[in-house]
Amino acid sequence: MKLAKAALFGAAITVSAGMMLSTGAGAQRSDRSAQKPVAGMKWNSVVTRKDGGHIFGNPNAAAKLKEYVSYTCPHCANFADQGDPALKLIYIPSGKVSVEVRHVIRDPIDWTAAVLAHCGEPEKFALNHAAIMSGQKDWLKIAQEATPGQQQRWGNPNRTAARKAIASDLGFEKIMERRGYSRIEIAKCLADEEAAVKLVMQSMEEAKEMNVSGTPSFALNGKLLEGTHSWPVLQQNLDAFFDAQKGQ
């Protein structure tokens, strides 16, 4: 999906003076050091939170894959349904592939979803991310049919109030409650403005640096994969990478 300056209800995100303004288990811990492949290592249990993203698997893998995704992108939800399970079942366990999920935050809904996906310890992110993506069909329909009153609440200059309104109106709170979060925990994450601004700044800088123009997009070992926006095409790229390695 191509990126748009103003998404859904017309609220564009801009950055000024470092602030965000809106017009409308195993080895799960943060910033752990890179590891060498270890026989029998359960790489699916290794999660690293770093610079606004989450890395799954061996941080020292031969193939370092980055996913650039947006929660309001239907194609990203399709990839989460088809590609993410395949990566976790087939590629990550070998220790030869790591997958880093990066956010492309296009609007206040994206921002709210990303904040909630990051709520809690790094090991919680995978299922938070999957739950929000799997529910997209339902909550995105509500967003697309938003009333003027909802649009006004979602564009509130008080960003904490705006995120709480979005989380309530779109059912994000219920999704997180089903994940085992209390209302107090959810409210605390939504109100952490410092973390929210840091997340969106890191996400925007990364997407700009990599020249990401649509979602989902993918980079392999620091190089953006042109014309790769679906699991079948990405799988071809990964398999070609390892085939080339065998020939060396």
Question: Can you give keywords for this protein?
Answer:
single chain, six-stranded mixed sheet, 10 helices, disordered N terminus
Oligomer state equals: single chain
Widest sheet: strand order? 3-4-6-5-7-8
Unreliable sequence segments: 3-35
CA radius of gyration is 18 Å
Share of helical residues: 40-55%
Mean pLDDT rating: 86
N-to-C order of helices and strands: EEEEEHEHHHHHHHHEEH
What would you note in describing this structure?
This protein has 248 residues and is of the alpha+beta class. The chain has helices spanning 74-91, 108-117, 125-134, 136-144, 148-154, 159-169, 172-178, 183-191, 193-209, 231-246; strands at 13-16, 19-22, 47-50, 53-56, 63-69, 97-103, 217-220, 223-224. The strands form two sheets. A six-stranded mixed beta sheet has the order 3-4-6-5-7-8, with helices on both faces. The chain has a two-stranded antiparallel ribbon with strand order 1-2. The longest helix is centred in the first third of the chain and has 18 residues, at 74-91. The model is unreliable at 3-35 (pLDDT under 50).
TL;DR of this structure?
This protein has 248 residues and is of the alpha+beta class.
Write the layout of secondary structure elements.
Blueprint: E1 13-16, E2 19-22, E3 47-50, E4 53-56, E5 63-69, H1 74-91, E6 97-103, H2 108-117, H3 125-134, H4 136-144, H5 148-154, H6 159-169, H7 172-178, H8 183-191, H9 193-209, E7 217-220, E8 223-224, H10 231-246
Parallel strand pairs: 5-6
Antiparallel strand pairs: 1-2, 3-4, 4-6, 5-7, 7-8
Helix pairs in contact: 2-3, 2-6, 2-9
